[in-house]
Write a sequence for this structure.
């Protein structure tokens, strides 16, 4: 038996890279999968190829070509899962694009396109799936439901040249926390992952391809995107205890990440003056310290 037997999943951006690996893993674990990847005229060749691969291996999957950034398209995905397989248990929000540019040269279109796919796309899928799950919960269906969002180290730790992408990905992690808080009453869990994997998006970043090339000696390939998918599948299992969390996942390493937390503080029992803050304020800088040992 697979760990996802009987569970029905939508995986967005699943025509290649991380999404493709997620879809293959989920199907291998017994899930029925809606494989989404953007297409034209209602057809996504990339999604169809992944579906064919899953079916050839004995799994069940259907293709979807809608854009996650489209309100009605996201709703159609939920409807398609229910029509094809009878229910929906899991949404993996993975679709994404990059339009890297320094802030002072970034166009409005480059900002809007990235925010639309990443942030609005995550919202659209959570919104429509959440409405369906709320209705099922009110009808007495208490099945476990799970959302897995895709954030990024660029959003969590910052990366010059990716203001649009990083801002959207930071917001995605916060959106996941709020979705977890709001939808737990309907049996819905929501977590986010920041993956490290060799995908077309990462290979397009200048200077990155050489750093994440497969090892020539055949040793463990940390950057193989397939390494990320087992943890995504684990978050989707019915007995997974996590919700409202964010994890970095790469190679054989999984790290739970803390969101905003209090650090240094200065305090007095009256209003500060600017002159006093010039003296005491530098204490807020702390001692510096090292960043977590996370590949970014």
């Amino acid at each position: 038996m697979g760990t996802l037997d009987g569970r029905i999943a939508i995986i967005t951006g699943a025509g290649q890279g991380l999404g493709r690996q997620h879809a293959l893993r989920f199907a291998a674990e017994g899930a029925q999968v809606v494989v989404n990847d953007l297409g034209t005229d209602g057809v996504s060749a990339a999604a169809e190829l992944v579906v064919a691969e899953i079916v050839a291996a004995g799994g069940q999957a259907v293709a979807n070509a809608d854009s996650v950034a489209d309100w009605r398209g996201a709703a159609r995905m939920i409807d398609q899962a229910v029509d094809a397989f009878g229910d929906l248990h899991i949404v993996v929000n993975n679709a994404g694009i990059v339009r890297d540019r320094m802030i002072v040269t970034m166009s409005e279109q480059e900002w809007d396109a990235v925010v639309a796919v990443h942030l609005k796309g995550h919202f659209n899928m959570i919104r429509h799936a959440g409405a369906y799950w709320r209705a099922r919960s009110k009808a007495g269906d208490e099945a476990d439901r799970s959302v897995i969002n895709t954030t990024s180290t660029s959003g969590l730790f910052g990366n010059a040249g990716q203001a649009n992408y990083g801002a959207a990905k930071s917001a995605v992690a916060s959106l996941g926390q709020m979705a977890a808080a709001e939808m737990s009453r309907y049996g819905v869990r929501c977590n986010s992952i920041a993956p490290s994997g060799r995908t077309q998006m990462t290979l397009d970043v200048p200077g990155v391809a050489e750093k994440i090339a497969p090892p020539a000696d055949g040793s463990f390939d940390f950057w193989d995107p397939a390494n990320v998918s087992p943890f995504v599948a684990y978050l989707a299992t019915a007995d997974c205890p996590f919700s409202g969390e964010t994890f970095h996942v790469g190679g054989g390493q999984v790290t739970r990440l803390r969101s905003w937390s209090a650090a240094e503080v200065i305090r007095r029992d009256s209003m500060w003056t600017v002159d006093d803050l010039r003296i005491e304020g530098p204490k807020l800088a702390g001692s510096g310290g090292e960043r977590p040992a996370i590949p970014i």
Observations:
- The chain has a mean pLDDT of 93.
